[in-house]
Amino acid sequence: MASHSNSPHRGEPRSFRPRFEAEHHPSSARLITERQLECLAWVQEGKSATDIGVILGLSGRTVEKHIIKVCGHLGVKTRVQAVVRARELGLIRGHAP
User: Is residue 64 a part of any domain in this protein?
Assistant: First the structure.
């Protein structure tokens, strides 16, 4: 087992540690669906779940579930973190579809 002294997250509060680094688990990013990425692209434009639901013909609750799934696959906790990570990985571009 690895020593905690070599941990890159040493000193950070436990709640802020990512569950995994996406760079080391690229297969997880492949589990993200096109619909989930579409929702995330609209999130980066500042749209609410309700707004995105109207745009895509979904309920706001379904949009929220898509965003929660994306966050889990990317190992982040917030919408903003998800957008940043997805852009870093080239999953979404700078503007909505």
Answer: yes
Residue 93 token pair: 């571009």
Residue 64: give its domain's CATH number: 1.10.10.10
* Structural domain boundaries enclosing 85: 24-97
The tokens for 1 are 């087992």
Per-residue confidence (pLDDT) for residue 25, from 0 to 100: 44
CA–CA distance, 32 with 11 (Å, rounded to integer) = 31
Question: pLDDT tens, 12-31?
Answer: 444 433 333 444 445 667 78
What is the per-residue pLDDT across 67-83, written as a single tens digit (0 to 9) for each? 999 999 999 999 999 99
